[in-house]
Amino acid sequence: MTAPVTVMNPAETSTKLDEMLSWHAIYNLLCDYMRGQDRLDPALHRSVFHDDATTDYGSFTGTADEFVAFAQGVLTPHLSNHHMIGQVRIDFEGDTAFGEVYFQAFHRTLSDAGEADLWVSGRYVDRYERRDGHWKIAHRSELVDWTRLEPAGDDALKAMNFPLGQRAPHDLSCRRDEMRVR
To answer: Residue 144: beta bridge partners?
Structure first.
């Protein structure tokens, strides 16, 4: 027995296709945002925001330019960073969309007490706008759901000589020509 086929009218099909393509474009922005932070690439980090975008991270509120400078400055002294995206919910209202993006961020820090791992987990609550055919973040707020600070815990991995991620341009993901010949 075959399942019934639902046929959408052309207008519904066009709207759904636009939402799928738009969702994908916004998801790529989210990935570029995280990559810009992890690789310490301020140009990539800034590229996901409209020029007049605003941000509210609780302890920091400001423009996109101010936020990127702030975030890059906070992340630079860390030994490494690793941001991950969890579930992503995006609701569309024409050329405006609203998102809730779950994230986890790992930060390897260094202090007089030694290396430590800071974990931050929360959500971005965003407004995206499509202008001139391009989606970007118009406003981003960050909500922190939990944090954890503990001594660095990967000495066993270091002893096994696993290659570690690095900042741009030294990270393997930034060396495309090298990857072409592997």
So the answer is: 122
Torsion angle, alpha carbons of 86, 16, 18, 44, to 10 = 0
Q: What is the pLDDT of residues 89-120, one digit of tens each?
A: 999 999 999 999 999 999 999 989 899 999 99
* Cα 178 to Cα 40, 41, 175, distances in angstroms: 20, 20, 5
Question: Is residue 163 reached through a cis peptide bond, with omega within 30 degrees of 0 on the bond before it?
Answer: no
What's the rounded Cα separation, in Å, for the pair 56 and 35? 20
pLDDT at 7: 66
Set out the domains of the chain in order of their start, with CATH numbers. Answer: 10-171 (3.10.450.50)
How high is the pLDDT of residue 93? 97
Distance CA 169, CA 25 (A): 25
DSSP string, 8-30: --HHHHHHHHHHHHHHHHHHHHH
Q: Which residue has the tokens 């994230």?
A: 103
Question: CB of 128 within 8 A of CB of 141?
Answer: no
pTM above 0.90, yes or no: no
**CA-to-CA distance for 98 and 140, rounded, in angstroms?**
10
